[in-house]
Amino acid sequence: MSSPLRRILLAAFSLALAAGAARLRVASTDAVAKAAEAAMYSQDRALPVTLYREALRLDDASPYRWADLAEALAADGRVRDAGQCFDRALTLAPSVPQIWVRHANFCFLHEQPERALDSAVRVLDCVPDYDSVLFHDFDEMLPKPETIAAALGGRPRPLRSWLSHLIEVNNPVAARIAWKQILDGHFGEPAIASAYTEYLIRTQAWSDATAAWSTWLGPRRGDYPDRNLLFNGRFERAPSGGPLDWRIGEDSEFFETVRENGVVRIHFEGKANVDYNQLSQVAVLPAAGRYRLKASVKSNEITTNEGPRLAITDMDLETDPITGTHDWMPLTLDIQTTRARSIHVAVVRRPSRKFDNKTAGTFWITDVSLVPVS
To answer: 177-190: b or e for each residue (b if 16 or more CB lie within 10 Å)?
Structure first.
């Protein structure tokens, strides 16, 4: 969106805020209503100034009246007078976000980005209601994300919200700056770490995704990714929901998936021909070459000819099905890739085509690892 068009929209937004505030306040006078209508529809830019001066004379302690007059003066080209009126409004309303967001819009419109950013940060400190509007203003009016990051400083909620916005608008440079500031301030949470990692995977920033996830995990990462390209291979930690962590789907009346004592147990109830794909993790292969996926599994009375398999579903690779009863034994899949990429590792069970196809029994898995092969 071009800057002139953005400024027109900012002005319309400010006028809409003023008109809305005028309609909602019970104590509004006829002068306020007439002024708001003139500001929206009149071609005479001096008329709203006159009407808002009358409204201000009736209620000169209201920060809204001072902001109304400021915007009317600005629309009439009297920017210096408008700035003085806004100063008075801000003095009267040190904690009213509606006044501060209007001041930020005024400053953006009239090329005062530093003051605009200061006011915007005060709004972001108070409420999340204007995040989207202000972050889009940042995109258009503030070309250096380092400036925004410095202004947001140690504010966890605005920083996380800004990063979510940057992911949405696909701004990888600014997103990296926001993520670093979140990490430096120890403001990371599973949801935002997962969202940022998923964004990096989606944009094929493979090494950045692995680095972001492992850095956020810190000491919790264990042997990931130095000795195992799968995180939490022994299921010692509850899944966080992130893409580079195990995801366990919801159970049904036909099966259950339970993490217990360093293993995952999958039990089939024998009621259906189950199509199972409820345990999975995305992993990053950092370079072209050969890799080996390994796991230790056992089973007890798995029925039908189709049992659980260890699979890489997006490469159409899978082991033979495990059926019947087996003590702990290894499963292995070898992988060859010509480039860095992500893969989807999962435990699956394919529906059987046999007549007697309702599967029952129990399957256990642990010690899942993914390592390069020399």
So the answer is: bbbebbeeeebbee
Same domain, 217 and 293: no
Residue 259: CB atoms within 10 A of its CB come to 17
Full-prediction pTM beyond 0.85?
Answer: no
pLDDT interval class at 320 (50, 70, 90): very high
* Residue 237 domain flag: no
Residues 82 and 6 reside in one and the same domain: yes
The mean per-residue pLDDT over the stretch 74-98 comes to: 92
Task: Quickly list H helices, 110-227.
Answer: 113-126, 131-141, 145-152, 156-168, 172-184, 190-202, 206-217
* Closest-CA residue to 14 (of 58, 73, 55): 73
Torsion of Cα atoms, 154 then 155 then 159 then 160, to 10°: 120
The enclosing domain of 258 has a CATH number of: 2.60.120.260
What pLDDT score does 171 carry? 97
Sheet with 341-349, side-by-side order of all strands: 247-248, 276-285, 341-349, 309-312, 317-318
Indicate whether 331 and 295 sit together in one domain.
yes
Among 295, 287, 268, smallest CA distance to 338 is for 287
Helices marked H in the chain: 3-24, 30-41, 46-58, 63-75, 79-92, 97-109, 113-126, 131-141, 145-152, 156-168, 172-184, 190-202, 206-217
- Cβ-contact 372, 291 below 8 angstroms: yes
Question: Residue 203 belongs to what domain range?
Answer: 143-221
Question: Is the predicted pLDDT of residue 17 greater than 60, yes or no?
Answer: no
**pLDDT confidence band for 95 (50 / 70 / 90):** confident
- Asked whether residue 123 falls in the same domain as residue 153, the answer is no
The residues facing 293 across adjacent strands are 333, 370
11 within a domain of the structure (yes/no): yes
Walk across the sheet containing 360-373 and list its strands. 255-260, 263-269, 360-373, 289-302, 324-337
